[in-house]
C-alpha cells in the first residue's frame, strides 16, 4: 500500500465511523480506524487461507489452551502484513506518532505467564511458517487482574480489556454450538441390545466463538485463534428470569482464574475447562463432517493438542462425540482419539498437575465422568499381565477419589512432550517414569521458543537496526542468521554500536520508571532484571537476599567499589497465594528502604514495576543487562523470559534449570554465569533428606544478618510477612534451597560486578547472547511439533506439490 492509499483509507473510515476528518481525530479514533483497515486487508487473506485449507483438505492442528497472552496486536499485525514502515511514516506526515496509537490498545491478557505467552508465540509462528493451525480457548470478559501496589501490598483490580470493544475479533454467530453441563445421566438398553446414555436435567449453554486472525509474517497466511464466550440460548431464556440467575451462566467465561480457594470457584473452573473443550471438539467434528471422509481418516486431517492438563477432557469428550453422537464402537473411537491427540507437560510442580475430585466431576460433567471410568476400567484390564499391579495402580486415571488429568492426557494421546531437554529427561526418569515404562515411544522433547519478531524487531528497534547494518536483514526472516554477529566479537566499533542501542532502551525504561514510580535511576547502572510469575520456586526471594547483602555492605562501607545496579522486578502473585504476596510486600519495603537511603549514594536501587504483562515486558527486556534465571534446578520446566532477554543482549545469571542449560550450551560458559545446585544434587538431598537450612544459617554470619532483617525491624512494615518468610526459610527448612545456593549466587554476582566494568568484555558476552538466540526461535519449535507430533505440512509445500498457488 502506498502512503496515499493508507491516508485515503483512514480518511474514509474516520468519516464513516466517527464523522471526523483525519486532522481532527484523536489517538483512540485513529487506533480503531487503523485496526479496521488492518482487518480489511487481512480478512481477504484470512478467507483465502481458510478456503485453501478446505479445498486442499490440508491436515490442521488445533491448539487447545486455557490461556493465550497475545499482548497488543497493532504493531505486530502491521509488521506481519509488511506495512509497518509505510503506516508509521504516513502517520508521521500528519504529526501522529504510531507509538501513541499503539498505547490505546489494551493488552489481551488471557493468561498468567509463560504458558499463555508460549501459546501466543506459537500462534504467530504457526501462521508465519505457513502451517495450518488454529488456537482454541476462552474469551474471558476480564483478563488476568490488573496489579497495583498499595502500601507495598498487591491489590488486584479487574482487567476490563473489552470495555472499548476488541477491534481484532469477529463474532461468528453461525458457528455457535451448545454445551451441556450438570444434570444426571443413566444408561438405557435399546431394542438392539446396545446401551445408550440418557441425560436428564442438564443445563444447556451456548458457546459463541470470537475469531481473531493470526497473521503470518509477510506470507499471505492468516490462521484463526478461536475464543469461546458463553451465552444463554434463546430457547432457555425463560429459565433465567432475574439478573442473578442469568449471571450463574454468564460467569462461566467471566474471569480467567475464578478463585479456586472456594468450592464454588473450583466448580466454575471445571465447567470452564469442559466448556471450551466441548465447543472446540464439536466445531472440529462439524468441520470434518463437511469433508465427507470416513472416520478412520480423522487423524489424517485433524490433530488436537492438549496444552497442559487444563484441556485434558479432550480425551473423554472426543470419545463422547465419536461414540455417543456418531455411533462408533469404543475400540475404533479410542484408536482415533489416541492418534488425533497429543499433550505437552509444562511443569513438574504438583499443584499444577491437576487432579479433580470425582464427586465434582460427577456434578459438573456426569457423562464425561462415566467415560473416564470406562477409560480407566479398560486401561487396567488391557495392562493386566503385561505390567505389574503396582505400576497399573500408580498410573490409572482414577485414584484416591480423584481424576488425574495428566494420566488421562498421556493415556489418551500418542505424544507427551516436555518443554526443554532437562525437563523432558526428568519426565522420563522421575516425574512420569511409570508412563515412560509403559509407553516409551510416546515421550519426546520440544524445547520452547519465542516469537523473535515481537521480542526483537518490534520491541527493540535500535538494536534491530544495528544488526541490519552489521549482517543485513536476513535474520528478520531467518533468526539463525543472527549467528553471523559472531564475526564482530572483536570489532570494537560494532560492539560500541550495540552498547549505544542498549543505552537508548535503558534511557527509555529509566523515564518510564520515573513516570510510573517516581524512582530516579541512572542508565549507567547495571539493569538487573527478574520478570516472571511470582512463585517460591522461581526464587525472587533469593534475589532480594542478595540485595540486602549489598545494602548491608554499602552501609558498613560507603566507599565500597561497586558498579551501580538497579534491580528491576515484574511479577504478579496468584490472588490466593499468600506467601508469594508476602514476598511482593517484602520486595516493596526493601525497595522503599533502599531507594530513600541517601547514604547508599545510588549504588543500588530497587524497582518493582506494577502490573507486569506483555507490554511491560516489551519495555523492560530491551533495557536489561542482566537476566535473572535463578529457579531451583529441576523446578523450572523451561522458562522463556530467559530466551527473550538473551536475544536482547542481556547476560544470564542462572542455575542449570530448564532451557538455561541449552542457553549455556549455545553461548558457552564464558558468556553466562552459572551457579548453584544441579538437578542431580537437588534430588540427592531429597533422597538423603539431610538438608538443614538452620545449619547454614548458624554457620554464616552474613546470612544471619540478612535473614534477621526480616524479623528484627530492619526492614520496616513487614511484621507479619517478615516472620512468614523467616519461618519458611528456617522453621520449614527452606523448601527451595535458597540458603544452600546463596553463597554461590553471591559469587556469580560478584563476578558480574567485576566483568561489567570492562565494557568491551561485557559487550562481547552480550553479543554472543544475541548471536546465539536464533536457536530459540518459536518458528523452529513449531516446525518440530508439526513434523514429529502433528504431522502437518506448510501450505506452501502442499500447494507447490499440487501446482496451485496460495493466498
Ligand atoms: C510454565 C513453566 C515454564 C515454561 C512455560 C511454557 C508453566 O510457565 O513454569 O517453565 O517455560 O510454562 O512452557 P510459567 O511458570 O511462566 O507460568
Keywords for this entry:
Rossmann fold, disordered C terminus, alpha/beta, 807 residues, globular, 6-stranded parallel β-sheet, binds 1-deoxy-2-O-phosphono-alpha-D-gluco-hept-2-ulopyranose, 3 domains
Characterise the protein shown here.
The protein has 807 residues and is α/β, with parallel strands linked by helices. The chain has 3 domains: 1-56 and 73-106, no CATH class; 60-70 and 111-142 and 210-228 and 262-448 and 786-802, Glycogen Phosphorylase B (Rossmann fold); 452-776, Rossmann fold. It contains 33 helices and 25 strands. Strands 1, 4, 7, 8, 11, 12, 13, 14, 18 and 19 form a 10-stranded mixed β-sheet that branches. Helix 12 packs across helix 13 (366-383) and helix 20 (492-517) crosses helix 31 (759-772). The longest helix has 30 residues, at 27-56. The model is unreliable at 800-807 (pLDDT under 50). The structure holds 1-deoxy-2-O-phosphono-alpha-D-gluco-hept-2-ulopyranose (H2P).
Short overview:
By secondary structure, the chain is of the alpha/beta class.
Show the helix and strand layout.
Layout: H1 3-18, H2 27-56, E1 60-64, E2 68-71, H3 74-81, H4 84-93, H5 98-104, E3 108-110, H6 114-128, E4 133-138, E5 146-150, E6 153-157, E7 169-171, E8 177-181, E9 184-189, E10 195-200, E11 203-215, E12 222-231, H7 243-250, H8 263-290, H9 298-301, E13 302-307, H10 314-325, H11 330-340, E14 341-344, E15 355-357, H12 358-364, H13 366-383, H14 389-395, E16 398-399, E17 402-404, H15 405-411, E18 416-418, H16 421-431, H17 433-438, E19 443-445, H18 452-458, H19 461-471, H20 492-517, E20 526-531, H21 540-556, E21 565-570, H22 578-595, E22 604-608, H23 614-620, E23 626-629, H24 641-647, E24 651-654, H25 660-667, E25 673-674, H26 679-688, H27 693-699, H28 701-708, H29 719-729, H30 738-757, H31 759-772, H32 778-790, H33 795-802
Helix pairs in contact: 1-2, 1-4, 2-3, 2-5, 6-32, 8-10, 10-11, 10-13, 12-13, 19-20, 20-31, 21-22, 21-28, 21-30, 22-29, 27-28
The structure holds 1-deoxy-2-O-phosphono-alpha-D-gluco-hept-2-ulopyranose.
Amino acid at each position: 500500500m502506498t502512503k496515499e492509499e493508507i491516508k485515503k483509507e483512514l480518511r474514509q473510515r474516520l468519516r464513516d465511523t466517527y464523522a471526523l476528518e483525519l486532522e481532527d481525530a484523536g489517538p483512540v479514533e485513529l487506533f480503531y480506524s487503523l485496526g479496521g483497515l488492518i482487518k480489511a486487508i487481512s480478512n481477504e487473506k484470512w478467507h483465502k487461507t481458510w478456503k485453501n485449507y478446505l479445498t486442499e483438505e490440508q491436515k490442521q492442528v488445533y491448539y487447545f489452551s486455557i490461556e493465550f497472552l497475545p499482548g497488543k496486536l497493532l504493531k505486530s499485525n502491521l509488521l506481519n502484513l509488511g506495512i509497518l514502515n509505510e503506516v508509521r511514516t504516513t502517520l508521521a506526515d500528519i504529526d501522529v506518532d504510531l507509538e501513541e496509537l499503539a498505547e490505546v490498545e489494551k493488552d489481551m491478557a488471557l493468561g498468567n505467564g509463560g504458558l499463555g505467552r508460549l501459546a501466543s508465540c506459537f500462534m504467530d509462528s504457526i501462521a508465519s511458517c505457513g502451517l495450518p493451525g488454529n488456537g482454541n480457548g476462552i474469551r474471558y470478559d476480564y483478563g488476568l487482574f490488573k496489579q497495583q501496589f498499595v502500601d507495598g501490598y498487591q491489590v488486584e483490580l479487574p482487567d476490563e480489556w473489552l470495555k472499548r470493544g476488541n477491534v481484532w475479533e469477529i463474532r461468528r454467530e453461525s458457528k455457535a454450538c451448545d454445551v451441556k453441563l450438570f444434570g444426571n445421566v443413566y444408561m438405557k438398553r435399546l431394542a438392539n441390545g446396545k446401551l445408550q446414555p440418557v441425560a436428564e436435567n442438564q443445563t444447556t449453554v451456548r458457546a459463541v466463538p470470537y475469531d481473531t486472525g493470526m497473521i503470518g509474517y509477510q506470507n499471505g497466511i492468516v490462521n484463526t485463534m478461536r475464543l469461546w464466550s458463553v451465552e444463554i440460548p434463546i430457547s432457555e431464556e425463560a429459565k433465567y428470569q432475574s439478573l442473578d440467575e442469568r449471571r450463574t451462566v454468564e460467569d462461566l467465561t467471566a474471569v480467567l482464574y475464578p478463585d479456586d480457594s472456594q468450592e464454588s470457584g473450583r466448580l466454575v473452573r471445571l465447567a470452564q475447562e469442559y466448556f471450551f473443550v466441548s465447543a472446540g471438539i464439536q466445531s472440529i467434528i462439524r468441520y470434518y463432517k463437511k469433508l465427507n471422509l470416513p472416520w478412520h481418516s480423522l487423524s489424517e486431517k485433524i490433530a488436537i493438542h492438549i496444552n497442559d492438563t487444563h484441556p485434558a477432557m479432550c480425551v473423554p469428550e472426543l470419545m463422547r462425540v465419536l461414540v455417543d453422537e456418531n455411533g462408533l464402537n469404543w475400540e475404533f473411537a479410542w484408536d482415533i482419539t489416541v492418534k488425533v491427540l497429543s499433550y505437552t507437560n509444562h511443569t513438574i510442580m504438583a499443584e499444577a498437575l491437576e487432579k479433580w475430585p470425582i464427586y465434582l466431576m460427577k456434578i459438573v460433567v456426569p457423562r464425561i465422568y462415566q467415560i473416564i471410568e470406562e477409560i480407566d476400567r479398560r486401561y487396567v484390564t488391557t495392562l493386566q499381565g503385561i505390567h505389574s499391579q503396582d505400576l497399573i495402580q500408580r498410573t490409572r486415571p482414577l485414584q484416591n477419589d480423584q481424576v488425574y488429568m495428566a494420566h488421562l492426557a498421556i493415556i489418551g494421546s500418542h505424544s507427551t512432550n516436555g518443554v526443554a531437554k532437562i525437563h523432558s529427561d526428568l519426565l522420563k526418569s522421575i516425574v512420569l517414569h511409570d508412563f515412560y515404562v509403559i509407553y516409551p515411544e510416546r515421550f519426546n522433547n520440544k524445547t520452547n521458543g519465542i516469537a523473535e519478531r515481537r521480542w526483537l524487531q518490534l520491541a527493540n528497534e535500535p538494536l534491530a537496526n544495528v544488526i541490519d547494518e552489521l549482517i543485513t536483514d536476513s535474520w528478520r526472516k531467518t533468526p539463525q542468521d543472527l549467528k553471523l554477529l559472531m564475526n564482530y566479537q572483536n570489532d570494537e566499533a560494532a560492539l560500541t554500536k550495540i552498547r549505544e542501542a542498549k543505552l537508548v532502551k535503558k534511557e527509555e525504561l529509566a523515564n518510564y520508571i520515573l513516570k510510573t514510580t517516581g524512582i530516579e535511576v541512572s542508565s549507567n547502572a547495571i539493569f538487573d532484571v527478574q520478570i516472571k510469575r511470582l512463585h517460591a520456586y522461581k526464587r525472587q526471594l533469593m534475589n532480594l537476599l542478595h540485595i540486602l547483602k549489598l545494602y548491608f555492605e554499602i552501609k558498613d562501607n560507603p566507599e565500597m567499589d561497586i558498579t551501580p545496579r538497579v534491580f528491576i522486578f515484574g511479577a504478579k502473585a496468584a490472588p490466593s497465594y499468600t506467601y508469594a504476596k508476602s514476598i511482593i510486600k517484602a520486595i516493596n519495603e526493601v525497595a522503599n528502604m533502599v531507594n530513600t537511603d541517601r547514604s547508599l549514594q545510588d549504588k543500588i536501587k530497587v524497582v518493582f514495576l506494577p502490573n507486569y504483562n506483555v507490554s511491560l515486558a516489551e519495555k523492560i527486556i530491551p533495557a536489561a543487562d542482566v537476566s535473572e534465571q535463578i529457579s531451583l534446578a529441576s523446578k523450572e520446566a523451561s522458562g522463556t523470559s530467559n530466551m527473550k532477554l538473551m536475544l536482547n543482549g542481556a547476560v544470564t545469571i542462572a542455575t542449570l534449570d530448564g532451557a538455561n542449560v541449552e542457553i549455556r550450551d549455545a553461548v558457552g560458559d564464558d558468556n553466562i554465569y552459572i551457579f548453584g545446585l544441579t538437578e542431580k544434587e537437588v534430588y540427592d538431598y531429597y533422597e538423603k533428606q539431610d538438608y538443614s537450612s538452620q545449619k547454614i544459617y548458624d554457620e554464616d554470619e552474613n546470612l544471619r544478618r540478612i535473614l534477621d532483617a526480616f524479623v528484627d525491624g530492619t526492614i520496616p512494615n513487614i511484621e507479619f510477612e517478615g516472620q512468614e518468610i523467616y519461618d519458611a526459610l528456617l522453621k520449614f527448612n527452606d523448601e527451595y534451597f535458597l540458603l544452600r545456593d546463596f553463597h554461590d549466587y553471591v559469587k556469580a554476582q560478584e563476578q558480574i560486578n567485576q566483568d561489567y566494568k570492562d565494557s568491551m568484555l561485557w559487550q562481547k558476552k552480550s553479543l554472543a547472547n544475541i548471536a546465539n538466540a536464533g536457536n530459540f526461535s518459536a518458528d523452529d519449535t513449531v516446525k518440530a511439533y508439526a513434523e514429529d507430533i502433528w504431522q502437518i505440512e506448510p501450505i506452501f509445500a502442499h500447494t507447490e506439490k499440487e501446482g496451485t498457488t496460495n493466498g
